[in-house]
């Protein structure tokens, strides 16, 4: 499967979880950060190999998002930004953060943000008016390019029965364009990237391996990846209608926190 001559291979959006733990334990975190007790930092050398491979596969990647967990916990985040910019010169780089650490970071961080043309995506949780004002004051005073998402509600979409209609769930999924790269594997959504956390935390045996691709497979090219990402997959069977709830912190997570409106083969 090859692209037509003169047609560019473009990946519109890719997220990379550079850490998997967080400093804010949100109930029902879609990345299962509040259930993960193990610290994980994306190794810089492995990160560089993966980003370089993406740059070899695609003519352009429009947006690359570093997220977590809380990505600002990564002790070498500036080095990761540098790596991205070396290989992806035209890509829009975003850091998706809860912002709590922003007022504590030094000038070197903010200089790097400007140097590598990085946008901060701030998820503003209701953690306190004074805290959020301090975060926003920091972003403004440091002249950072940022956008703000006010978060009041969370939602659960997990169907533990795994018997939903995959195609139906994929078609209506708001996150089906939220592709993820983790340790050499690209997946249609974040779920395959957190399979190991779910299994370790809740003694499950979920297997989402058919819902991710090895970017180092010699038979893989950009067109095959793009085609793969535009299909429903087995992981979609574990999604269902969303159950919304008010955001709150949760010290002792239960798998039920992630349940949606389980409706079987809906």
UniProtKB/TrEMBL annotation:
Co-factor requirement: [4Fe-4S] cluster
Domain Radical SAM core: 17-116
Gene3D superfamilies assigned: Aldolase class I
One term of GO molecular function: metal ion binding
Any Pfam family: Radical_SAM
Keywords in alphabetical order: 4Fe-4S, Iron, Iron-sulfur, Metal-binding, S-adenosyl-L-methionine
Keyword 4Fe-4S: yes
InterPro entries, A to Z: Aldolase_TIM (IPR013785), rSAM (IPR007197), rSAM_sf (IPR058240)
Protein name: Radical SAM core domain-containing protein
Species, as recorded: Agathobacter rectalis (strain ATCC 33656 / DSM 3377 / JCM 17463 / KCTC 5835 / VPI 0990)
Taxonomic lineage: Bacteria, Bacillati, Bacillota, Clostridia, Lachnospirales
